[in-house]
């Protein structure tokens, strides 16, 4: 509340005295906290971003696919490494060497072009599969970039797997 303080002189000539006005700011502090609390409870700070994974529809007549082996020419494997590095190969356990594990980057459309080139060379295009294998040192952003590149290449058959021990051995030799 406002309070008016006056000083009166006694005796002598009477002059109009100056009045000091003092304002009590205590209720304003309460109002400020109420407004801050109101806006904190009614605002959305950030909305979660969700990435859609294209999952296949449930087949009414399922067939067993346990014994299907995908030839290395019908697949391409990407290993997501540390420091925004990505490697790829189309080899099996016996044929993979350090020279066969090639490196590319996320700049431009490199990964999409590699997928498209491997698809063009695949003998059975209907079962062509992209395999993504993130290492323990990779980050989530690189994984999302890889999934975006698969989407850009318009490939619907892909898998996410762990790095096999024989791939990890070659990968570790290449990054040294």
From TrEMBL:
Q: Is Chloroplast included in the keywords of this UniProt record?
A: no
> Main location per UniProt?
membrane
Database matches in InterPro entries: ExbD
GO CC, sorted alphabetically, is: plasma membrane
Localization: Cell membrane
Q: Which domain of life is it from?
A: Bacteria
Looking at the UniProt entry, the stretches that span the membrane are 21-41
UniProt keyword annotations, A-Z: Cell membrane, Membrane, Protein transport, Transmembrane, Transmembrane helix, Transport
Its GO biological process annotations read: protein transport
Q: Sorted alphabetically, which Pfam families does this protein's record hold?
A: ExbD
Q: Which GO terms describe its molecular function?
A: transmembrane transporter activity
Its placement in the membrane is given as: Single-pass membrane protein; Single-pass type II membrane protein
Record-linked PANTHER family: BIOPOLYMER TRANSPORT PROTEIN EXBD-RELATED, EXBD MEMBRANE COMPONENT OF PMF-DRIVEN MACROMOLECULE IMPORT SYSTEM
Q: Which family does it belong to?
A: Belongs to the ExbD/TolR family.
What is this protein's name?
Biopolymer transporter ExbD
Q: Which organism is it from?
A: Chryseobacterium formosense
């Amino acid at each position: 509340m406002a309070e008016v303080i006056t000083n009166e002189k006694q005796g002598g000539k009477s002059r109009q005295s100056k009045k000091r006005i003092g304002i009590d700011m205590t209720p304003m502090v309460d109002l400020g906290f109420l407004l801050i609390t109101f806006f904190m409870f009614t605002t959305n700070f950030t909305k979660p971003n969700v990435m859609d994974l294209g999952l296949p529809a449930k087949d009414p007549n399922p067939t067993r696919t346990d014994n299907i082996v995908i030839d290395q020419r019908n697949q391409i494997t990407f290993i997501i490494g540390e420091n925004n590095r990505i490697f790829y190969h189309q080899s099996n356990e016996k044929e993979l060497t350090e020279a066969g594990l090639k490196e590319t980057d996320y700049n431009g459309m490199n990964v999409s072009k590699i997928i498209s080139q491997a698809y063009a060379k695949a003998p059975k295009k209907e079962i062509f599969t992209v395999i993504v294998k993130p290492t323990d040192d990779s980050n989530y952003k690189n994984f999302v970039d890889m999934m975006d590149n698969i989407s850009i290449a318009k490939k619907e058959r892909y898998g996410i797997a762990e790095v096999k021990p024989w791939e990890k051995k070659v990968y570790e030799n290449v990054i040294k």
